[in-house]
């Protein structure tokens, strides 16, 4: 019996995977090492007890979008929320990408930008970053001018390198995108760790969307909630494309309750930034190359040992980091999530042992 075949593009595709192994210390998926603050779970539980389970959730997620908008100084009509920032990005590509259109990105960068583009039938146009992984503005201009992509992705701070695109670079990219009638998506999954946000560049007729996630700084990876802030006309188009009732009642509640704990989130980010500096200072004393990071992770490359062997050596010591060898130009690189001080101490001791 012959089986039905998927689309050719899907048949040739590899899925997106982040290996999960049972270890003592998990530093591979950029999650928050801390749980949400005291009172969060109780507040969510109390609100969930009021759900009318026989009814569909609010289709427009008005309360959640209103509170997110208040956080960024915009109205709910400028906010689109979905199941993780990945569904947000997928919806953006389903709306503005697709067959006959293309999306641009600058490698190495977040792998889901190209993966989601291919899933949605959107052509992928890849540019390269400079040796230090900062944006090459000549390359940005060449790629956008020649290919006129429907969607251009910037990730700032960039995953997996941690590099931040400057305000001037984002402004220039936005000018190029505007001239070619495209949309610029600035993926700020780690935006709270950086000093500048592209939200400041939003305008009613500016073709810019800024995506955020609850998974990192809000310590809510289990909730799968992300959003974009964008002009009203963009959000209206996204609402046409997304499936009805896609955001369940519990997720909407959790996202709304979290915003009542803004001070706790800011304090958690400050602790992680301080811990990041400590970790990077300690790594500077080891035989590894370390890239400056403005995110909750650090990219390193062992100088004298194969990165894959070092990764396995850490796993053998019950520590899991991300092997980035499959990313463009990142052979031998490992990405390390900032953990608790105790977790980071275990990582540093194990790394020093593996490297000797």
Given as residue ranges, the uncertain stretches (5+ residues, pLDDT < 50) are none
Structural class: alpha/beta
Order of helices and strands: HEHHEHEHEHEHEEEHHHEEHEEH
CATH topology of the largest domain: Aspartate Aminotransferase, domain 2
Radius of gyration: 21 Å
CATH architecture of the largest domain: 3-Layer(aba) Sandwich
Shape: globular
Please bin the fraction of helical residues. 25-40%
- List the domain count as a whole number: 2
Number of helices: 12
CATH class label of the largest domain: Alpha Beta
What distance lies between the first and last C-alpha atoms, to the nearest angstrom? 56 Å
Strand content: 15-25%
For CATH, the homologous superfamily of the largest domain is named as Type I PLP-dependent aspartate aminotransferase-like (Major domain)
Give the overall average pLDDT.
95
Describe the largest sheet: 7 strands, mixed
Number of strands: 12
Please state how the strands of the largest beta sheet are arranged side by side.
2-8-7-6-5-3-4
Your description of this structure?
This protein is of the alpha/beta class and 356 residues long. The chain folds into 2 domains: 122 residues, Aspartate Aminotransferase, domain 1; 210 residues, Aspartate Aminotransferase, domain 2, CATH 3.40.640.10. It contains 12 helices and 12 strands. The strands form 2 sheets. A 7-stranded mixed beta sheet has the order 2-8-7-6-5-3-4, with helices on both faces. Strand 5, helix 7 and strand 6 form a beta-alpha-beta unit. Helix 4 packs across helix 8. It is globular, with a radius of gyration of 21 Å. The model has no long low-confidence stretch (mean pLDDT 95).
């Amino acid at each position: 019996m012959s089986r039905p075949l998927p689309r050719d593009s899907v048949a040739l595709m590899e899925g997106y995977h982040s290996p999960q192994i049972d270890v003592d210390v998990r530093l591979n998926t950029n999650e928050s090492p801390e749980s949400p603050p005291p009172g969060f779970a109780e507040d969510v539980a109390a609100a969930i007890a009021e759900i009318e389970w026989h009814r569909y959730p609010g289709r427009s997620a008005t309360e959640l979008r209103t509170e997110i908008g208040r956080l960024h100084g915009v109205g709910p009509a400028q906010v689109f929320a979905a199941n993780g920032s990945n569904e947000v990005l997928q919806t953006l590509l389903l709306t503005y990408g697709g067959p006959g259109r293309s999306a641009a990105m600058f490698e190495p960068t977040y792998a889901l930008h190209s993966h989601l583009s291919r899933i949605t039938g959107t052509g992928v146009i890849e540019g390269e970053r400079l040796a230090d992984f900062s944006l090459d503005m000549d390359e940005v201009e060449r790629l956008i001018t020649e290919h006129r992509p429907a969607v251009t992705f910037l990730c700032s701070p960039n995953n997996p390198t941690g590099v931040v695109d400057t305000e001037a670079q984002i402004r220039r990219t936005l000018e190029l995108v505007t001239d070619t009638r495209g949309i610029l998506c600035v993926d700020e999954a780690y935006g709270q760790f950086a000093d500048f946000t592209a939200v400041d560049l939003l305008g009613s007729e500016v073709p810019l969307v800024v995506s955020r996630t609850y998974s990192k700084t809000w310590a809510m990876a289990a909730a799968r909630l992300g959003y974009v802030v964008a002009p009203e006309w963009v959000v209206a188009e996204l609402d046409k494309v997304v499936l009805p009732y896609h955001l369940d009642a519990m997720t909407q509640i959790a996202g709304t309750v979290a915003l009542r704990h803004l001070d706790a989130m800011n304090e958690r980010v400050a602790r992680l930034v301080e811990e990041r500096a400590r970790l990077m200072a300690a790594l500077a004393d080891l035989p590894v190359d370390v890239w400056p990071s403005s995110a909750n992770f650090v990219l390193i490359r062992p100088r004298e040992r194969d990165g894959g062997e070092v990764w396995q050596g850490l796993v053998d010591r019950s520590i899991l980091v991300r092997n980035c060898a499959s990313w463009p130009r990142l052979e031998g690189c490992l990405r390390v999530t900032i953990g608790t001080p105790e977790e980071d101490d275990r990582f540093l001791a194990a790394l020093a042992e593996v490297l000797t």
